[in-house]
Each structure stands twice: as structure tokens, then as C-alpha cells.
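User: Please fill in residues for this 68-position structure.
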């Protein structure tokens, strides 16, 4: 199991949190997603077949890009 914490500045409210959690949970291999509007971070637990690039790509596609 991989756990990654991503900084996503566009998280502003509960709707953002819900959208991110719903979209990422749909990816096969994503086990858990916790997004926070307070920390503007998303913590994701995942295993293959999904990888970090796919997760970041999905976030970018829904207009919540992760920044370094
Ligand atoms: Cu929002």
C-alpha cells in the first residue's frame, strides 16, 4: 500500500472535497481518499493498477491540480 499526501491549493469548500473524493475513489486501486479544505491537502492510499501519475492526472482533469 502506498500513501501519498498532495498539496492541492484549489480546495476551498466541502463541494471540492466531495468532488475529489468521488473522482479519485472511482480509480481502480485507490483504497482511501481524504481531502481537506483546511489543509488544502489530499491524502490517498493506493495500490496497483493505479499509480501516482494517474492520480495527479485525474486531479488536473477536474481542475484540482496538485502542486509541489
Ligand atoms: Cu469548493
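Assistant: Residues filled in for all 68 positions:
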Amino acid at each position: 500500500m502506498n500513501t501519498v499526501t498532495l498539496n492541492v491549493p484549489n480546495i476551498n469548500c466541502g463541494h471540492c472535497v466531495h468532488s475529489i473524493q468521488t473522482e479519485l475513489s472511482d480509480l481502480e486501486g485507490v483504497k482511501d481518499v481524504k481531502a481537506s479544505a483546511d489543509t488544502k491537502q489530499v491524502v490517498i492510499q493506493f495500490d496497483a493498477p493505479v499509480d501516482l501519475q494517474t492520480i495527479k492526472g485525474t486531479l488536473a482533469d477536474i481542475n484540482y491540480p496538485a502542486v509541489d
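For context: The longest strand covers residues 30-36.
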